[in-house]
From TrEMBL:
It comes from Nocardioides piscis. One of its GO terms (molecular function) is DNA binding. It comes from the Bacteria. The lineage of its organism: Bacteria, Bacillati, Actinomycetota, Actinomycetes, Propionibacteriales. Residues 10-70 form the HTH tetR-type domain. InterPro entries: DesT_TetR_C, Homeodomain-like_sf, HTH_TetR, HTH_transcr_repressor_FabR. Keywords: DNA-binding, Transcription, Transcription regulation. This is TetR family transcriptional regulator. PROSITE patterns: HTH_TETR_2 (PS50977). Residues 33-52 bind DNA.
Length: 203
């Protein structure tokens, strides 16, 4: 059975996203053109606009395609973790596996987070903020977090996510050092949590 029009449209959209990732392996999003992407996919430039209104919106879609499934995986870990150590170990495992499976996507995010167009940088920042907010909400239900205010839980979550973001950067730069990188991050986060769990919020 031939694919429907909607299926063909989705296939073309996916092909455009994959082409953009290939073209930015040794470059950046701002350095590629709509025509380059269209040529890579094998479509006319006008067909590009049926899916994205600009290269920048294509970049935002690439960010969404990476972060939305990752956030779902992390939420599953956080909501099933009985202890904070389980949350840390589960989170790092999920991130490491996802970076391995989608290396090109993570390399794109790491690069465009600081060097990408404004909307793409904002999209990455927004997704990281969402992860921090979701983590703070789930940590609040774990044993040992009772003495922390909502504001302090947000600070702890921000710090944990910052460690993980740095870990992703290191994993994309040196995949062979995964074991050492994860061990270092685990120690850093556990040290942070020792201090946080002995903190008494003042508000």
């Amino acid at each position: 059975m031939a694919p429907s029009r909607a299926e063909r449209k989705e296939q073309t959209r996916t092909a455009i996203l994959e082409a953009a990732l290939r073209l930015t392996v040794d470059s950046s999003l701002v350095a590629i053109s709509l025509r380059q992407v269209a040529k890579e996919v094998g479509i006319v430039p006008t067909a590009f606009y049926r899916h994205f209104d600009s290269i920048e919106s294509l970049g935002v879609a690439l960010v969404d395609e990476s972060f939305i499934p990752l956030r779902a995986l992390l939420r599953d870990v956080w909501r099933q973790a009985p202890q904070l150590t389980d949350l840390v170990d589960g989170s790092l495992s999920v991130v490491a596996v996802d970076v391995r499976r989608h290396a090109a996507s993570y390399a794109f995010i790491v690069r465009e987070r600081s060097a990408g167009p404004p909307r793409v940088r904002a999209a990455v920042r927004h997704e990281i903020e969402l992860i921090s907010q979701e983590l703070a909400a789930d940590v609040s239900g774990l044993q040992g977090s009772e003495a922390l205010s909502a504001k302090d839980l947000e600070l702890v979550a921000d710090l944990i996510v910052s460690f993980v973001v740095t870990t992703v950067e290191r994993l994309t730069e040196d995949p062979a050092a995964e074991v050492q990188i994860l061990a270092r991050t685990r120690t850093q986060i556990l040290m942070l949590l020792v201090g946080a769990l002995n903190w008494r919020s003042r508000d």
